[in-house]
Write a structure and sequence with these properties.
The chain is an alpha+beta fold. It has 4 helices and 5 strands, in the order ααββββααβ. It is elongated and about 65 Å long.
Length: 131
């Protein structure tokens, strides 16, 4: 509730500074959806990195090829529902990028086990990524 109030107050200030009247501001808040609750989430991104890499990396410093393995997970911690929401995706970066670019679903994504068993891979371990 505190964050919601802060957003409303700041929005009202900006509208006043923009020359809106009290009646116009009220109409804006009646017409525009405003967050009804706070929501937190936990995101994790793992990627394939060189064998010598053991530390946590900053996302911006990565230069991964399309054969790099990535695993992403997002859990939204619900405050008004009795369940959390989880989304996960894994596979080779090239596979995932193809899906995003083409809109076509790839039938099978390489699993971590498959990727680790591939003798020609340029990477051999996973490291957590922070952003």
């Amino acid at each position: 509730p505190c964050a919601q109030e802060l957003v409303m107050e700041r929005s009202e200030e900006r509208l006043r500074e923009g020359g809106f009247t009290d009646d116009e501001i009220a109409r804006v808040f009646e017409s525009v959806p405003v967050a009804t609750h706070n929501q937190r989430g936990i995101g994790t991104l793992h990627s394939g990195c060189p064998e010598t890499c053991a530390e946590t990396l900053e996302a911006e410093s990565l230069h991964l090829g399309e054969d790099a393995y990535v695993s992403a997970r997002q859990e939204n911690l619900e405050t008004i529902h009795k369940h959390n929401v989880v989304a996960e995706r894994q596979g080779l970066l090239g596979e995932l990028q193809h899906e995003i670019d083409s809109g076509e679903h790839v039938g099978h994504h390489v699993t971590k086990r498959e990727w680790l068993g591939t003798p020609t891979r340029p990477y051999s371990s996973t490291t957590s990524i922070t952003s």
